[in-house]
Amino acid sequence: MELDSAAGQRSPRGSRGRIVMLVDNGVRNDSRVQKSARSAAEAGWEVVLFGISPTREIQTWNIGGAEVRLVPKPGPLWPRRQELRGLRYRSPLAYRSPKMASYREQHVKAWRADLRFRAEAHKAGGPGRPSAGGSSARLIVPKAAAKAMSKWVSLRARATRRAKSRRDNFDAPFDKALTRFWQLTMGERAWRRLLPYLWDYELAFGKHIDALEPDLIHAHDFRMLGVGARAAVRARAKGRPVKLVWDAHEFVPGLHSQHERWLPGHVAWEKEHAVFADAVITVSPSLAELLVKGHQLEETPYVVLNAPVMSPDPEEAAAADPTPDLRELCGVGKDTPLLAYCGGINPVRGVETMIEGLQLMPDVHVALVSTPPGKPFAATAKIVQLVEELDLGDRVHVLPFVPHWQVPEFLSTADAAVSPLHHLPNHELALSNKFFEYSQAKLPLVVSDIRTMADMVEKTGQGEVFRAQDVEDYVRAVKAVLADPERYRAAYDDPGLLEKWTWEAQAEVLDEVYSRLLPDTEAPATSKARQQ
After folding, report:
1. Residues 6+ apart with CB under 8 A from 273
2. Model-level pTM greater than 0.85?
3. Whole-angstrom Cα distance, residue 96 to residue 488?
């Protein structure tokens, strides 16, 4: 059903054409997707952005001139067939499910506890009181039986846990052989056996896309590539030459695999559908090169960087609170050395290195802009524990996020900004959002030696590079930057450097892709004026 978020009716087709964007999340926390939708609408395209609803109802709202529709995505194919069969076929001793194992363990514990109670009640009987638990001799056989049953149940429960682990990870020899069999016999089609849950995306979104009859489909990342490709194929079969743009956010072979079938299944899904893309966009030149090699692309993907918006929507900016003062929130003066970090906190982000480094820099404070507004300390338990153990609570300031267009101004009063990422394939391939936000704040940078970011920092001279997870080398880099910050800030005086690191510049690339695929769709005069 085609709904307009305001009137409940289908939106009129835009003057340049209708673009349907697809993303496999709830949109609200995906700045790249939001920026893409807003800028496309500003350039004169009619944009409908589909994401996943957290409820069973369709949710709609607007991002600038773009309409957002969150669609429910049931997951009946999410449970793997092995999970529906139970565990007995993997181990004769295993219970049919972990729930049954837990039930049996708890039941035998309760039995033994009751026998202990009966024995203790017998001892507590006393003169004039009948023995509440009965004769202790009568409990000898039940106690022996309960003890034997406890051992038997424990044995079966351990077998159940081992069988579940093998089933969940698909790492048993039989599972590995079966995975390899499907890969050899089905090739790129193997995802149908390895990850059938991917059908859930197609079945949830397909009818909504078809009903809109888009001129162009912009599929964000690998899961929605398949959904978009199949919708484009259906339209082409009906005589409508729908164009497909694939926006590759990550290098799929470099992702962490949740189990032995996760990675080969998604790689197969991506390979089967990549051939239907009329144009490919990605986040860095390094990833563009890998995509050319991995999918034998005829042309190098366009690069659209994850750069920040420098000219926010006037209405949205007017409705927001003024940009807060970073140093005021931290309770420090202008002479206190202050390092800024902006982004989520998890083990691979390297924030531990920043915290541990404070022990060697007693005058330095750290601002972690890492929590949603109005929520308490949202870092991992490990970071919380580390700050408490090192007694650094007075120098570690955890602050809420600000609107994305306020980030550069908000951070600008810090002395330097830090990106301490660990080495992971996808970390090596792109410049992150925070890199560009730090740069627009004109802050000296301290970055770990992940390839793409380290190469850029060394090329521009805007900061220092340290060995990832090396606290002493991190401290060296911080001290070098704090000793002569103006030397590093001078890098931002390079003509044109910061201008190309804005979303406004990236939006021009995005519009170029759309315009090439849909010629004779000149941007309205208002859009041209806005881009200039």
Report:
1. 225, 226, 228, 229, 230
2. no
3. 63
| CB-CB contact of 377 with 351 (8 Å) | no
How large is the average pLDDT for residues 459-485? 97
Specify the residue for token string 């000898």.
140
Can you spell out the DSSP letters for 18-63?
Answer: EEEEE-SS-STT-HHHHHHHHHHHHTT-EEEEEEE-SSSS-EEEEE
Structure-token pair, residue 407:
């980030």
For residue 504, the one-letter residue type is E
Annotate 381-408 with b (16+ C-beta within 10 A) or e (fewer): eebeebbeeeebeebbbbbebbbbbbbb
Q: Could you give the CA distance from residue 16 to residue 164 in angstroms, rounded to a whole number?
A: 54
User: Residue 162, class by beta-carbon neighbours within 10 Å (0-12 exposed, 13-18 middle, 19+ buried)?
Assistant: middle
**175-200 tens-digit pLDDT:** 788 889 999 999 999 999 999 999 99
Residue 304 makes CB contacts below 8 A (sequence gap 6+) with 36, 247, 281, 282, 283, 506, 509, 510
SS3 string, 416-466, reads: EEEECCCCCHHHHHCCCHHHHHHHHCCCCEEEECCHHHHHHHHHHCCEEEE
Among candidate residues 382, 390, 389, the one with its CA nearest the CA of residue 345: 382
Contact 71, 205 (CB under 8 A): yes
Is 306:432 a contact under the CB 8 Å cutoff? yes
Q: State the Rg of the chain over Cα.
A: 29
Q: How far is CA 96 from CA 10, 147, 199, 259, 426, in A?
A: 50, 23, 27, 21, 39
The residue type of 316 is E
* Cα–Cα distance measured from residue 93 to residue 293, given in angstroms and rounded to the nearest whole number: 48
Choose the weakest-confidence range: 73-82, 464-473, 474-483, 486-495.
73-82
The better pLDDT of the pair 130, 491 is held by 491
Q: Hunting for tokens 């060697």 — which residue is that?
A: 360
Give the DSSP letter of residue 398.
E
SS (H, E, C) 261-273: CHHHHHHHHHHHH
> HSE on the CB side for 336, CA within 13 Å?
19
CA–CA separation, 423 and 470 (whole Å): 12
Label residue 318 by pLDDT band (50, 70, 90). Answer: confident
Question: What is the full DSSP assignment across 356-395?
Answer: HHGGG-TT-EEEEEEE-TT----S-HHHHHHHHHTT-TTT
pLDDT for the residue 4: 40
Element (H, E) at 476: helix 471-483
